Amino acid sequence: MKSGEILVIDLFAGPGGLGEGVSSVETSDGVYPFKIGISVEREASAHRTLTTRAFFRKIRHKQNAMTDYYDYVKGLITRDQLLTKHPTESAEAVQETLDGPTELGKDNDLIHKRIKELVSAHDGPKVVIGGPPCQAYSLAGRSRNAGIKDYVAEKDKRHFLYKEYLQVLSIAQPDVFVMENVKGILSAKINGQIMFPSILDDLRHPGKVALDGDNTGKSYRIYSLVTEAKNPENPQYPNTSDFLIRSERFGIPQARHRVILLGVREDIKAIPGTLTEKDNAELNVKNILDDLPELRSGFSKRTDAVSDWEKTVSDNAQLLEKILQEEGYSAEQIDELDLKPYSGLPRKSNKHADIRLCRIQEPLKTWLIDPDLGTVLNHETRGHIEADLLRYAFCAAYSSLNEGISPKSKDFPAALAPEHANWKTGKHADRFRVQSANRYSTTVTSHISKDGHYFIHYDPKQCRSLTVREAARLQTFPDNYFFEGNRTQQYVQVGNAVPPYLARQIGKIVLNLLEDRHN
Asked: What pTM value is reported for the model?
C-alpha cells in the first residue's frame, strides 16, 4: 500500500456496506485514504457481490473500464469477460476478497496469514471494521431460539463470534476499530448475565481473551458515536443505550437502530467526534423511491400473465372502493387515491430512473444517483398469491388515508382477513405492513427475502412488495451497486448490511481522529 494510506481490514463483510461507506471518504484534496486490504465473507453470493464491488472501486476513475462495468450489469457482457478485460484490477479484487468465501473460526489459518502479511507490509494507520453475525443477539433470533428444543445459549457459537473479532484485533493492533451489531446485543444474556458489559471489557483488552489471558497486546478506549463522554480520556457511559445509533437521525431513510462501537488504541491521544444529526423532514420513502420505474407484481402459484394481473387489479380496485366506502371514507377521499390500475406494467425494468421525478435531497442524491448508469439494477418484483394483491392495495390505501399509519390486523375488514389461526390474537398484529409514503421506512431486515408482507409498496396500484433495488435505496446503497446471486440471496444481502451512507459518516469521524493525532 502507498504511504499515507489507511489499511482497512473488513470482517464479517456481507455485501460490503460498511466497507463501501468507509472507503468512499475523501480528503480535502480529493484523495481516498481508506484502502480495503482484505474483506472476509463466508456466504457465496455476498462474497461475489463483495468482489464485484471491490473491482468497481479499482476502476471507478477509468472511463473505458466503467463502460465495461455498465455493460456487465446491463447483461451485455459476462462477468468473466469483464474481469478478463481488466486483469490487473480483477486480480487485485480477487486477492482483496481472498479468492473465495472464507469464514472466521473455520479458515483462520488463511485469514490470519493474509492479515499478518498486510500489517507487516503497511507503514501507516490501520482500521478494523465489521459486525459479527447477529442472529443469536437479535430479538427475533432469540425468540426463534426459545422455540428450539434443548437449545442452550451457552453452546451457541454465534454468541461468541465477536471473539474471532478479538483475535484479529490482537493480530493487527489497529489504531481504530468499528464494530456493529443489532440492539439486542445490549440485552442478550448467558447464564442469566447480560453479556454486553463483558463484551465491552473484552474489546478494551482484546489480548486477554484472544491470547488466553496474556494481556501484552494493545488496549482500547471504547467510544459512543452519538453521545459525548464526560471524561474522553477514560470514556464511560451511564446507559448502554448511549451506544445505540438511530439511523433516521443521520440521513438514512429508515428507522434502523444498531449498536456501533468505536475503539481507539490507548496510545492515540486524539478524541473522536460524534455523528451530526440531520434534518429529516424530506427523508421519506416516497422521496427516496418515486423516481424508480413503476412495476407490477407477479402471481405465485398460478400462471403469470400481464392481462390476468390487470384484470385482477382492476376488479380489486372496484372492490377496494366498495370496502373503503363501507369503512366510512368519503367518495372524495377515495377519488383522490386514484385506484384505477396501470396498464402494461412490466415486472422487471432496466430503464433509467426518472431524474425529473427525483425528490432526494442533497447530499444523499449525489451519493445514490449515477447519471451514467443508464439503467436500474436489481429492480424486479416477486410473485404474490392473488388474495394478497387486494390486501396490499388496502394497506397502501389505508396508509394514504390515515397520515402514513400502516393498518394493524384490527383495522382490516373481515373480508380481507387471511386464514391464520393467530390473526385475531394480536400476536402478529402487523403481519402486513406498508412502507408509508410520507415517513422513513421501518428496518429493512433479511426477512424481506421470505415474504413481502412487512415491505409493501406505498402505491396501491402496484400491489406489491419492495424490489431489491428499492430496499437497497432505503439502505443507501448507490444505484450502481450490483447485487449478485438470485433474488432471495440479494434480499438477504441488503437486509443484513450496514447502510453505506451511515458508514461514510463514521469513516469521516475516523479520518478526522487519525489526522488530529498528528496535529
From this structure: 0.92
